[in-house]
Amino acid sequence: MTDAPQPxxxxxxxxxxxxxxxxxxxxxxxxxxxxxxxxxxxxxxxPIRHAYFPHHxxxxxxxxxxxxxxxxxxxxxxxxxxxxxxxxxSREAFGRYVVQMAGTASRVAIEPLxxxxxxxxxxxxxxxxxxxxxxxxxxxILTCNAVHPVEARCCRWILMMHDRAEHDTLSLTHxxxxxxxxxxxxxxxxxxxxxxxxxxxxxxxxxxxxTDRAGLExxxxxxxxxxxxxxxxxxxPPKPGT
Length: 242
Hints:
disordered C terminus, single chain
């Protein structure tokens, strides 16, 4: 039996967008790591020691309030990098970074990453561009959480996860979804039951399967489309063979 092939670092769109010489300088410092479901990479205030470039894993940045209420403010998949922007400024995590979808990522220690970044102007430009993408995404998510009904927000979240998954079934509990949306678990149960009755999703034990993506896109608020328009313009999927 042969070993499974090692994931390609350039599965991450941000790494795939680098110039060959920039990637060659960074590659020796990259290592592939597994990110298990619900693993907490950082809590608020933790020192940032590594940046993570997800492949098919998905990580959320969650704000945790004093009463333990949580709400998601940013989402990181294969189009982004976890922890990099915090490390460039305060070197402390803004909030809790938790794995929503298990998978692999390319991890790099902050010190060598900064050394390569300082020596390669085009890499700095890519990082700056990603900072703008992340700011736009966070801006839209915060707006969505403030003004749109839970059903529309739930559809947005499911669609964003579905975009980053390789399959239609998402490992997801009502409790976890409630934490991401900043609402009561009972509220999520009502919303997901409504979506299932409409034929948009199918609920399983600890999972949600997308059965009618087009229907979800009709139900979701405008925020989903705005977020999607930002990312492809910056970092399109890499061409086959790259």
